[in-house]
Every structure is written in C-alpha cells, then in structure tokens.
Design goal:
Distance between the termini: 59 Å
Keywords: Phosphoprotein, Two-component regulatory system
Number of strands: 9
Order of helices and strands: HEEEHHEHHEHHEHEHHEHEH
Number of helices: 12
Structural class: alpha/beta
Protein name: Histidine kinase
Largest sheet: 8 strands, mixed, barrel
Strand content: 15-25%
Bound molecules: ligand C2E, magnesium ion
Strand order of the largest sheet: 1-2-4-5-6-7-8-9
C-alpha cells in the first residue's frame, strides 16, 4: 500500500479490495438464504445458582447451521447483519425459538428463565416488541420468565429512543439484564435510568482476577449489583477457584464452561439437562 503508485501493487490492492467486497456480498446473500430457510438456531447455555449449583435458566445464543461450513458463532454473522439491516430478523427468530422452548418447558420447569441478546439496532427500531407481545399471548408465557439482555453501549447511542422502548418492555412484564457490564463507556448514572433486574459481570473481570490476583474491580462490581438490588450473574466461569471466589463475593448466579457450554437442543436433551 505504501507504494500505491507502483503499478503491480496498486493492482494487488484493488484485487484484494474487490475480493473483500465479493466475500461480503456472498456472505450477505448466504445470510439472507439462511434467514429464510431456518438455518439460524439457538444454543442454550445453562445458568446456575452459585450456592446450590442448581439450574436456574438458560442464555440463548445465536448459531448458524451453515450448509457447508458447519456450526458458526455470532462473530461470523452478527456484525454484517447489523450493518446490512438484517439483525431485526435474527432477533425475531431468536424470540420465536425461545418462546417455543419456554412453552415446552413451562409445565415441568415453570421457574426456569431464558435470556436472549438484543442488538443496539433493536432498541433504535423496536419492531421486535410486536412479535414479543404476540408470542407471549400465543404460547401463554409468563413474561417474567423472559430476560432481554442489553448492553450499556446500546443505550448510549440514543437515550431519547431507548427510554420509551424500555418502558414498554417493563409494561409487558419481561425482565432486563445489563450484559457485559463495565466494558462500555457509559456512566454509572445509567444504572438508575435502566433499572435492570440483573447485572451480568463480563468474563474479562473474572479473568483479570484469575490472572493477576487483583480483585478490586470484580469485588466492587459484584457489590454494586447487590447494592442496586440486582441479581448478579458472573459470566465465563472456567475454574473451580473462580466459582469459589464468586461465592465468597456474594454473586448469586453464574454461567461458564466449568459447568456447561452452550448446547443445541438435541444435546440438551441427550445429556438430560432438563431432567435433573
Ligand atoms: P454474550 O451475550 O456476553 O454471551 C456470552 C458469551 O460468552 C457466549 O459467546 C458464550 O459462549 C461465551 N461463554 C460462556 N461461558 C464461557 C466461558 O466459561 N469461557 C469463555 N471463554 N466463554 C464463555 P458466543 O455464543 O460466541 O456469543 C458472543 C456474543 O455474541 C454474545 O456475548 C452476544 O453479545 C452476541 N450474541 C449471541 N447471540 C446473539 C443474538 O441472538 N443476538 C445478538 N444481537 N447478539 C448475540
Ligand atoms: Mg448475553
Ligand atoms: Mg455477556
Ligand atoms: Mg460477555
């Protein structure tokens, strides 16, 4: 690139730009096909109580069952979906998956909740609320078993828009969780405004303690959640020592590879996650 005036390298640069555009175009087409043919599914990661280690709920995480490339994680498709205005379709499909599961679990496991992630664009353009309302009615769900995970950066963009959306979600009776807390740029005063039910502590804070033994931020964040009357959920617990430490700090719930990874439905059933 430094010698862009030089013939061959300019051609090379153009080529790679073109192939990048082609790659993105093909990916977008494949995503659209996938959205229209049910290739986007939910993986469910169990969430446990820290003290009793009992199952309390699941987080639904989007996966793409790609016909050639196999099972793909959100990093492979969410950025482009957000950029190309396709994310609201994913949100609606995830809501549909979750509603179906909640309804099939509600007789035997009425206390379980399922949470799912919203995108910043869902808050700016909240077409999903209508879908959510109709799913709750159709399946006769208890709205308080549905948790919507939002990030602080998602609210930063436009509070004027976000505020009435959060109001209508509250009116519906669904719960709100503040995801990846502490990794964005918002000020603590957002905690008052958002008034979320749950606080999810990002894995990076647990990892920092594991790596360095420095617990100052982790401790403070757990205490902040407790003081705000929020249910504190620690994300990304990989080691027994981490779980023991969180118990000491008073975190109420956790999810992490230590106990369970996100699983597709057949695996959840095969491994008997709902029978225990
Ligand atoms: P997130 O909401 O913070 O989800 C937690 C992520 O941490 C998941 O990654 C999960 O697999 C991973 N995780 C859980 N336990 C552990 C652990 O012990 N160790 C490690 N290293 N990782 C752990 P995943 O499924 O790749 O999702 C990444 C992100 O993609 C999510 O972060 C969320 O921001 C986004 N995402 C996932 N599904 C959706 C969706 O349906 N809609 C939207 N808008 N975003 C989604
Ligand atoms: Mg999440
Ligand atoms: Mg998170
Ligand atoms: Mg996270």
């Amino acid at each position: 690139k430094a010698k862009a005036a030089n013939g061959p390298e300019l051609v090379y640069f153009d080529d790679s730009l073109q192939s990048e555009q082609k790659y993105r175009f093909n990916l977008e087409q494949a995503i659209k096909t996938g959205l229209n043919s049910g290739q986007f599914v939910a993986a469910y990661q169990p969430i446990f109580s820290v003290n009793e280690q009992t199952l309390v709920g699941f987080e639904a995480l989007a996966r793409w069952q790609h016909p050639e490339r196999g099972l793909l994680g959100p990093g492979e498709f969410i950025p482009l979906m957000e950029e190309r205005g396709l994310i609201s379709q994913l949100t609606e499909q995830m809501l549909t998956h979750v509603a179906l599961q909640l309804s099939s679990w509600q007789l035997q496991h009425p206390a379980l909740f399922v949470s799912l992630n919203l995108s910043a664009l869902d808050i700016q353009k909240p077409v999903f609320i209508e879908k959510l309302t109709s799913l709750i009615t159709t399946y006769g769900l208890s709205a308080d078993r549905i948790v919507l995970e939002i990030t602080e950066s998602l609210l930063l963009c436009d509070w004027q828009k976000a505020s009435p959306v959060l109001e209508s979600l509250r009116a519906l009776g669904v719960r709100l969780a503040l995801d990846d807390f502490g990794t964005g740029y918002s000020s603590l005063s957002y905690l008052h405004r958002i008034n979320a039910d749950k606080l999810k502590i990002d894995r990076s804070f647990i990892e920092h303690w594991s790596r360095t033994g420095d617990a100052r931020l982790l401790k403070t964040m757990v205490q902040l959640g407790i003081n705000m009357n929020m249910t504190v959920i620690a994300e990304g617990i990989e080691r027994v020592e981490e779980l023991d430490f969180l118990r000491q700090l008073g975190s109420e719930q956790y999810q992490g590879f230590l106990t369970a990874r996100p699983m597709l439905l057949d695996e959840l059933e095969r491994d008997g996650w709902l029978l225990r």
